[in-house]
Amino acid sequence: MSCWATRRCGSRATKGSSGTWPCDPTRRRQGIGTRLVENILQTGRLHGARQIFLEVRETNLNAQALYLKHGFDVVGRRRAYYSNPKEDALIMRWLLIR
Ligand SMILES: CC(C)(COP(=O)(O)OP(=O)(O)OC[C@H]1O[C@@H](n2cnc3c(N)ncnc32)[C@H](O)[C@@H]1OP(=O)(O)O)[C@@H](O)C(=O)NCCC(=O)NCCS
Fold first, then answer.
1. What domain range includes position 50?
2. Does this model's pTM top 0.85?
């Protein structure tokens, strides 16, 4: 599975990729995912990001729960974005100013 984020600073948009982002199955629910998300958000804040986007498989409810917990909202969908298995991606967005 993969996800990526887009940061928008003023009128400019920059992209950063987190690529494939698996946490070792034997070490899940120990806060590693939380630290990764907090690091992305902190980096975004430091670089003046106003919003950060990512994509996540529609059926990946665990990752969605992680992102929702950190203030991301679902704002869109990319049809058949993933393959093996073919699946939609949900686009989630975090806003600095709400
Ligand atoms: C999604 C993933 C990165 C979460 O990493 P993690 O280190 O287990 O997450 P954390 O321990 O920090 O959990 C933080 C929150 O995520 C959510 N969450 C994580 N695993 C969950 C699970 N199995 N069921 C329900 N919610 C889950 C919960 O909201 C959790 O908060 P809580 O423990 O207070 O309920 C990890 O499960 C993983 O590597 N999955 C496979 C790869 C993947 O999906 N990568 C992301 C692609 S976009």
1. 2-7+28-95
2. yes
